[in-house]
Amino acid sequence: MSFSEQLKQDAQEILEVTYQHPFVQGIARGDLCAEQLIHYVKQDHAYLNAMIQARGMAIAKSDNREDMEMFHKSIAYVLYDEGRAHENLCRVAGVDYADLQGFPLTPSAHHYVSHMLAAAATGTVADIIAATLPCPWVYDEIGRRLVREINPDPSHPFYDWIMIYGNDTSGAIDRYFARLDQLAAETSEAARERMRDLFLTSCKMEYNFFDMAYRLEEWPV
Ligand SMILES: Cc1ncc(CO)c(N)n1
């Protein structure tokens, strides 16, 4: 089994619990309330800024054009395309997307962002891929399963959100996993263990992020 196949297998339980989380099931049923959607979009906009920064730091650490292009493409995706997923949630919540940008991070989002940026600042390119790949991978898995299980039609309130994440044909995620396998093969067991820990921690933080939005988490003080 390849390194990335093992990672995916080790993350299956986290993925299952995340899929069953009431925020994700609320997307499936179309019954999340406006406050939850607004909280999610505010936090996700800020989170994705950090994702762009982490990938930018990966470009700064890259030594070849192929890696630079891989990171650049996924930065461009966040900048120019992923906003459509947020616009869907804003439409349902009855708010303007521009009004949800520039908010400070709540504890769970702050924790996830700090985890990614620490890996980006102190780690290798392989570490950065490991820490940032659960973001597209978990959403791809969730989106595809939502398409399979509920097969939404365009009248579903979260049709765009589900199709954006559940119907990606870019091959970007497979490319990242293939590169991670190459880098894992070239390094030490200790480095592979660190990559594994970064990946699985980010997977758990994907769960926390949905939970943060569902519970309207704020700083206690
Ligand atoms: C927290 C989080 N994880 C993953 C994605 C998918 O890019 C997202 N938009 N937000």
List the helices and strands and how they pair.
Blueprint: H1 3-10, H2 12-19, H3 22-29, H4 34-61, H5 65-80, H6 83-93, H7 107-122, H8 125-132, H9 134-150, H10 159-166, H11 172-185, H12 189-214
Helix pairs in contact: 2-12, 4-5, 4-6, 4-7, 4-8, 4-12, 5-11, 6-10, 7-8, 7-12, 8-12, 9-10
4-amino-5-hydroxymethyl-2-methylpyrimidine (HMH) binds next to helix 4, helix 9 and helix 12.
Helix content: over 70%
CATH class category: Mainly Alpha
Structural class: mainly alpha
Largest sheet: none
Q: Which residues form runs of ≥5 with pLDDT under 50?
A: none
Overall radius of gyration: 17 Å
What is CATH's topology name?
A: Heme Oxygenase, Chain A
How confident overall, as mean pLDDT?
Answer: 98
The CATH superfamily is known as: Heme oxygenase-like
The CA-CA distance between the termini, in Å, is: 47 Å
What small molecules does this complex bind?
Answer: 4-amino-5-hydroxymethyl-2-methylpyrimidine
Shape, per Cα inertia axes: globular
Could you tell me the number of beta strands?
Answer: 0
Order of helices and strands: HHHHHHHHHHHH
* Count of spatially separate domains: 1
What portion of the residues fall into strands of 2 or more residues? under 5%
CATH-defined architecture:
Up-down Bundle
User: Total number of helical segments?
Assistant: 12
Pathway: Cofactor biosynthesis; thiamine diphosphate biosynthesis
Catalytic activity: thiamine + H2O = 5-(2-hydroxyethyl)-4-methylthiazole + 4-amino-5-hydroxymethyl-2-methylpyrimidine + H(+); 4-amino-5-aminomethyl-2-methylpyrimidine + H2O = 4-amino-5-hydroxymethyl-2-methylpyrimidine + NH4(+)
Family: Belongs to the TenA family.
EC number: 3.5.99.2
